[in-house]
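Issue 218. Parser rejects a valid record. Input:
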Amino acid sequence: MNLMETARQQVADIVRAAYEKAAAAGDLPQAALPEPAVETPKDATNGDWACTIAMQGAKVLHMAPRKIAEALVGHMVLDSTYFKDVSIAGPGFLNFTYGMGWYQDAIRAVMQQGADYGKSKAAKPEKIMVEFVSANPTGPMHMGNARGGVLGDCLAEVLSWAGHDVTREFYINDAGNQVDKFAHSVEGRYIQALKGENALEFDPSWYQGEDIKALAQLLVQQYGDKLLDKPEQERLDIITGFGLPHNIEKMQRDLARYKINYDVWFRESTLHESGAVAEAVKLLEDAGMTYEQDGALWLRSTAFGAEKDDVLRRANGFYTYFAADIAYHRNKFKTRGFDRVINIWGADHHGHVARLQRALDAIGLDGTNRLEIVLMQLVRMMQDGEVVRMSKRTGKSLTLSDLLDEIPVDAARFFFNSRAAETQMEFDLDLAVRQDSENPLYYIQYAHARICSVVRGAQQAGIALPDAAKVDLTVLAHEEEKALIRAVALLPEEIQTAARMRDPSRLNKYGVVLAAQFHKFYNACRINDAEPALRDARLALCMATVQTVRNVLAMIGVDAPEHM
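Output the parser choked on:
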């Protein structure tokens, strides 16, 4: 249940009913009024909801907004609603204030729904795939993958809570030039490991990382020097068949350690083996979107507004990555029937977005509307006020595995989800491990642990925990109590907004606000030593709050500790 949305709808219904009565009584002219605009006031002293219908209707009613507002209020009936009063402010704002019934229902909704509090049924539920990370299996995952992993995972979770059928997918780029380059790189290091570095000049275009050397050493352990006697292509095939599964398994272990588990690991190579790439390209040819030049097949990308056309099939007969990408997305929509696909990409891929969408349009898949790309900006790792440029382990860029050796997984997940994808961010490694209120994750987790301590204290004192259906919650009249209830009631709305805006970082910000409001309540209101009726109501509020905090942390994928 979304009590915020219910209250908003009630305001709109109250206003519409009041206008019909005012018009019938002759106090307002008959006219086609617009849909009442209802929003939360910036200043909480102005009430819980504000409606601007008086200003909206001034032109069609040919009356001053204040006069319209006065006529509406004169005909309003608040009985059996969540509101105790309505007032007029300024030029004609209608400000509505909650009665205790709303506060009571807000607490009971959390206590009744428990771990499901915040979940809702989408008005139009969709079958959605969220594809994220999708790193080449030719090396370790870097910080872009680390940020994209959390953003994708949290977005998928938010969409699921918002009522959609969500699948998490990792696209394994196990075909194409990068795989050939990977095989030659490992082959070079394998030969050097057996014969010495001077036995072979290592091509500067090959992969240079220490992970390639490590793979070569594993090959030596597995095969000794036997691969040297194999024909080159057979040797490269053996290396690919050995190295890629090794790297993919390492990715799966690192991502599982990062609390990311995919529903599907999809291999690019299956698209080529099944003929899906050739089939997708043929559809583009049939649609008149291609031409041949210099022996290659080109897509007319400039017809989509791109600066240049794209090669689909090279002169040597091999399909490009772009052709495979079109076939992959056709598989998502056509073969597997997803209504919507959301990809988390690095900002450097921005030029690829429209081309892919329009290519899908050309084969009848409405890519412009059904394929969404969330472009993710870069992240800078900071420590001691300096940019962290080097990995302690490899001497190259900091990897996901390196990061998780340095800081807790929960800290990594929370901090990478703390900014919207399109925002550049600095990840402060020192702040991520601090155990004080400056660390937002610690601040939220501490609030959870503090509430758990309050509840334990009550139980240890022999106080029975309140029953949501029976406890009298109308005694919660303190302003900090009401403010905390309003904060708790925001969760379903925040989830819906985060899903709609594709911005799961809203959960981090909401969690901090909720924790801050609890601390204010805790400092202002005695709990276990209050008189019994008030004590039980406040305990119920604590139980609703701790459940809300727990649900927020669950969506972000971090622990909710009971002791700190």
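Fixed in the parser; the record now loads. The chain has a mean pLDDT of 95.
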